[in-house]
Specification:
It contains 20 helices and ten strands. The chain has 646 residues and is α+β, with helices and mostly antiparallel strands. The longest helix has 35 residues.
């Protein structure tokens, strides 16, 4: 038996034992108000982090050394796979991804408990207890239906290697870890929300918001960039020329992002006006439940998607845990929620707190639309056996008005004060941004942006951008933007995140409306004109590499009779895959992307067929995603001088 099998099972088994031990100690610490019990309980959380670190390092060692006596390595490993791909194979399949999940959860738990080791013993005891209960669920999966450390005897001489789609692009080294940090990070505000309900003291709602705010921003920021990276991976690997298809697994990550975004906004109302305490508790619970639901969708095998894992036996486990978490959380919310009263009240419909509540309702409506479009086909198939699909027109038509309203709120919300605003001031402050946005809209019209939907998005996004710009310009003589960021990182970090969101929305509307798509077949030496580009097929080549056979088409790209570069779309033939996996080639610029996919190659190597797509503004989606994440992290990392240390 491989030593890794022993090390891995021992680590997971001990983590289960320490979790049970820690739950008992946290409960004792709360009831007896014992600091010693609290110290030992926290030690059990740190021990879990150590044990899961050992288990993950052991699995990476087994993958790098082709230890096929370990079941997971026998399932995804291969001697021909490049070593960096072997290392990231940790999250290429169900069992390994849950192992990484367990480590990230233990890391979050240990960091949270360590940071709050000297504050709020009663509240933190409940937080630790909830975190350990969630940990137990994932450790049980690792010990029973999704155990990656089963012994294989006799071990095979070689394995099939990881899913070819996961070997095809470096983004798979980045996208899943970011997604896990985003998903798992929302466990922390959930634990604080439940802990606050368990304590049910009037002063605690404010405390849980303060103590969990940075964890919420961290999770939200990483989930934001993970969604963007997922779209980038689809664009760069799948060969269909798009980045978002309203796939159920894409939707599974989008739904908690929507409710998480609502939470990020609504906690400000509780901090500033002491309002919406129960609402925020419910949002924290809902976001966590949606992360579990998304994990269930991805890993239960009920979906046929390129993003999901193969069929497994963990679906019933997840359904039971989601049911327990849902019923338990709602029961606690109804039972203890009455004791948590809001101190503030709405003074006016034209106030920032009311606009933020409206913003929350829009995000939840958006979430409900996505939820309905994702789960209705699944429920219908489960009940009637009929298979239907709800496509892009439903999602696009339903989400368009909500997106427009959110853009409008983004601009107006920055001009309306807390408690009570007035229309005259709002109109006066809106004049300049409104005029500038009309100028931008007119220029867009002159350059061909004639679609009403695109013009509306450009106008609303420009208005919100110029409202933010007007404030920065007004303060510029006194403070530059970096100084403003240090003075008020939450507000100006928010400006960066909002600007990124505006870029994404505008870029998505432009790229989805003005995309040009055509298929061409070229002989060697032949050329074709696509819009302002000319594509010439120079040659076709084949190359054997250790893990695959690559067929490449060398396309010479010219514009106005001037050669501007070469694109080499290719098809990759993996031993374990019946169909070739394409690798599109893209020429990106700030204006547009020239996207080429190799569809078919003549067996004699004389000609080849291509899909050529010209899409405007795609690069701004990636830029916007990075800005959204950066804004969130800046708001989390930097603190106002007046904020006290928590």
């Amino acid at each position: 038996m491989s030593p890794i099998v022993i090390i891995g099972n021992l680590s997971v088994g001990l983590a289960l034992g320490f979790s049970l031990f820690g739950i008992f100690l946290f409960y004792a610490a709360r009831r007896l108000e014992s600091e010693n019990a609290g110290w030992w309980a926290r030690a059990s959380v740190y021990a879990n982090f150590f044990l899961m670190t050992v288990a993950n390092l052991a699995m990476i060692y087994a993958l790098l050394h082709d230890d096929f006596g370990v079941s997971y390595v026998a399932h995804v490993g291969s001697r021909e796979t490049p070593r960096w791909v072997s290392a990231i194979s940790l999250w290429s399949s169900l069992e390994g991804s849950l192992l990484l999940w367990g480590w990230v959860l233990s890391a979050f738990s240990a960091a949270c408990l360590y940071r709050n080791r000297e504050t709020h013993l009663s509240l933190i005891s409940w937080v630790g207890l909830v975190l350990l209960i969630v940990q137990i669920f994932f450790y049980l999966l690792l010990a029973l239906p999704a155990n990656p450390f089963l012994s294989v005897n006799p071990p095979p001489l070689n394995g099939p290697g990881p899913n070819p789609l996961l070997q095809n692009h470096w983004l798979m080294a980045v996208h899943p870890p970011c997604l896990y940090i985003g998903y798992i990070g929302f466990t922390i505000p959930f634990a604080f929300a439940l802990a606050s309900l368990m304590e049910a003291r009037q002063d605690l709602p404010q405390n849980w918001i303060s103590l969990s705010r940075r964890w919420t921003l961290l999770a939200w920021s990483f989930l934001s960039v993970a969604i963007m990276l997922g779209g980038w991976w689809s664009y760069a690997v799948l060969g269909w020329g798009g980045y978002w298809a309203w796939d159920p697994v894409e939707n599974a990550s989008f739904m908690p992002w929507l409710t998480g975004t609502a939470l990020v906004h609504s906690v400000m109302v509780q901090e500033k006006r002491k309002m919406l305490p129960v609402w925020n508790l419910a949002l924290a619970i809902l976001t966590f439940l949606l992360t579990l639901l998304g994990t269930f969708l991805t890993r239960s095998g009920i979906l046929d998607s390129v993003h999901s894992f193969t069929e497994s036996h963990i679906g019933p486990y997840f359904l039971v845990f989601i049911g327990i978490a849902l019923v338990g959380s709602l029961a606690l919310l109804f039972w203890r929620g009455e004791k948590i009263q809001a101190e503030g009240r709405f003074d006016s419909l034209l106030s920032l707190e009311f606009l933020l509540l409206f913003n929350n309702l829009l995000f939840l409506s958006f979430c409900f639309i996505v939820f309905l479009g994702t789960f209705y086909p699944l429920l219908l198939e489960a009940v009637t056996g009929k298979r239907i699909s709800i496509g892009e027109p439903y999602f696009n038509q339903m989400s368009a008005p909500i997106t427009s309203l959110l853009l409008l709120l983004m601009g107006i919300g920055l001009l309306v004060p807390w408690k009570r605003g007035d229309l005259k001031t709002l109109f006066r402050q809106s004049v300049v941004p409104l005029i500038l946005s009309l100028v931008v809209g007119f220029v867009s019209f002159l350059f061909g942006g004639r679609a009403p939907w695109v013009l509306a998005i450009v106008l609303l996004a420009s208005y919100a951008f110029f409202v933010m710009g007007a404030e920065v310009f007004r303060l510029a003589p006194k403070r530059n933007f970096f100084q403003l960021l240090l003075d008020n990182p939450r507000r100006y970090g928010g400006f960066i995140a909002h600007t990124g969101a505006l870029l994404i929305v505008v870029a998505v509307s432009l790229s989805s409306t003005y995309e040009k798509d055509q298929e061409v077949t070229l002989k060697r030496g032949e050329s074709v004109k696509v819009s302002s580009y000319r594509l010439s097929l120079d040659r076709l080549t084949g190359e054997e590499t250790p893990q695959r056979f690559e067929v490449k088409a060398h396309l010479q790209i010219s514009r106005d009779e001037v050669i501007i570069g070469e694109l080499t779309p290719q098809m990759n033939y993996y031993p374990g895959s019946r169909e070739p996996i394409g690798s599109p080639a893209v020429r990106s610029s700030w204006k547009e992307d020239l996207y080429t996919t190799l569809i078919q190659v003549d067996p004699k190597g004389e000609n080849a067929s291509f899909r050529v797509i010209l899409t405007p503004a795609v690069i701004w989606i990636w830029v916007g995603g990075i800005m959204v994440m950066s804004g969130g992290l800046l708001a989390m990392l930097f603190r106002r001088p007046t904020e006290r240390r928590l």
